[in-house]
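Following up on my earlier thread - several people asked me to post the actual chain instead of describing it. Fair enough. Here it is, all 183 residues.
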Amino acid sequence: MFIQTEETPNPATMKFLPGQDVMGQGTLEITDARAAAASPLAEALFRIEGVKGVFLGSDFITVTKGAEKDWPVLKPAILTTIMDHFTNNRPILSHDAEVHPAAAIDDSEIANQIREILDVKVRPAVAQDGGDITFQKFEDGVVYLNLKGSCAGCPSSVMTLKAGIENMLKHYIPEVKEVRQVR
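Reply from S.P.:
Thanks for posting it. Predicted structure:
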């Protein structure tokens, strides 16, 4: 098994590509070791000293490190853990993983337009950088988005939201006045 790695715009995160499906559909962000019980892979990665976050994408894993460790120290342990997980055919999600019900979905015409633009034009580019972006709600001209994975703590995330996504949404949907990040 050969696992590729890619740097991301966020220096605290690195993207790992195992060459096969990770989540397939959807994503899962785990930001602390207690929540890692939802995924045996995330649990194993959080056992590595210095790992502070794990984001599971369709075909990639993004790992966030703490400031006290450097990538040359962490990367071999992370690669070994991921390789061991996949070569032993362990599951990505725990069987008893708690699934939270989805929040109420805004199915207004504007919300659907926003989702479509995000899905077609934004999310593929964000996934290339090891993250994801999800629509939360549209209210009083404001679009609320959640940045995940490498995008969550990226120094350029504000620029991406304001200069990129906000301008694009305003162009296509005149009702959009602003884009804000929710945490």
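The first helix runs from residue 40 to 46. That should answer part of your original question.
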